[in-house]
Write a structure and sequence with these properties.
LlgE_F_G-like_D1
């Protein structure tokens, strides 16, 4: 009975986290460059149940001890591009591919941006990010291209981070904001349309599942090599769209369903706990009195 009580309690905690995740997604429906979060649940390790009778142990079988929300995964799908008309607004449009190491053919990623190999390995589609830097010199990654320009000409992200160029240094504009022109590869152009030699630092993250969400629309990589981070190359199927911003990729319908499902599952586990509580009360009071 006590095992069932703990299992139901673990279910309540898990559903509370699922509910909080869905609420977070709904709250960021209109956040530029926001990536939907999904709560991943796993079971606790199974335990082996045995019965002892007359000094002889007889195995009964395995029993699961509950569920827990192990982690939150970001869904790095392309959000809708919205035209803003501002010269300092940028959006990334990318459809990056990854070759199968065995056959050399491009992996067929599904609509959710992942591929499951014959061995059961999950491989996520590479993603492109703007590269920014905080005041401590840490490199961060974002899809929010709503930039601003300081009086000194520094290009800053909406969170106040310095936008880095392909050379790893902060981008500083030489001309006025009105004359800011950027081509599809991220090259800054002069008044005649010629490249200035400065290019936005667009990072390609080969394994985006290794990125850690920091808030303020930015991510960081604890191990850049494990995440397979590099700057964009000429052959990458990626474009910079000036005068556009990327909207949130939250699926409103799916998130609403998840929210209601989490609420109902939480209620179900709550009723189970109430049942166990009532049973224990009878065992202590009524059976004890007999």
């Amino acid at each position: 009975m006590i095992r069932g009580l703990y299992t139901a309690a673990a279910g309540m905690v898990t559903e509370q986290r699922r509910h909080d995740t869905a609420t977070q997604n709904i709250a960021n429906l209109n956040t530029t460059g926001y990536k939907q979060v999904e709560s991943i649940s796993h079971s606790f390790p199974n335990v082996l149940i045995s019965a002892m009778q007359g000094g002889i142990v007889k195995p009964i079988g395995r029993m699961n001890t509950g569920v827990f929300a192990e982690q939150s995964m970001s869904k790095f799908l392309q959000g809708d591009l919205v035209e803003s008309g501002k010269s300092t607004d940028f959006a990334l449009s990318a459809d990056l591919r990854l070759a199968d190491p065995t056959t050399g053919a491009n992996l067929p990623f599904d609509a959710s941006g992942k591929y499951i190999s014959d061995q059961g390995e999950i491989i996520y589609q590479p993603q492109a990010f703007f590269t920014v830097q905080d005041n401590d010199g840490n490199t961060l990654y974002t899809r929010n291209g709503g930039f601003t320009v300081t009086p000194a000409g520094e290009l800053l992200s909406s969170g106040g981070y310095k936008v880095l160029g392909a050379d790893g240094r902060p981008v500083v504009l030489n001309g006025t904001v009105d004359n800011l022109k950027v081509d599809e590869k991220g090259n800054l152009l002069d008044a005649t349309g010629a490249p200035t030699g400065v290019r936005l630092g667009i990072s390609i993250v080969t394994r985006p599942e290794n990125l850690v969400r920091d808030g303020n629309g930015v991510f960081h990589a604890e191990d850049a090599q494990a995440a397979g981070i590099r700057y964009a190359a000429a052959g990458d199927n990626m474009q910079v769209r000036q005068g556009y911003i990327e909207g949130s990729n939250v699926d409103v319908t799916q998130v609403t369903v998840d929210l209601n499902a989490a609420y109902r599952a939480y209620e179900a586990n709550q009723k189970v706990i109430q049942f166990y509580d009532s049973s224990l009360q009878k065992a202590v009071n009524d059976v004890g009195r007999v």
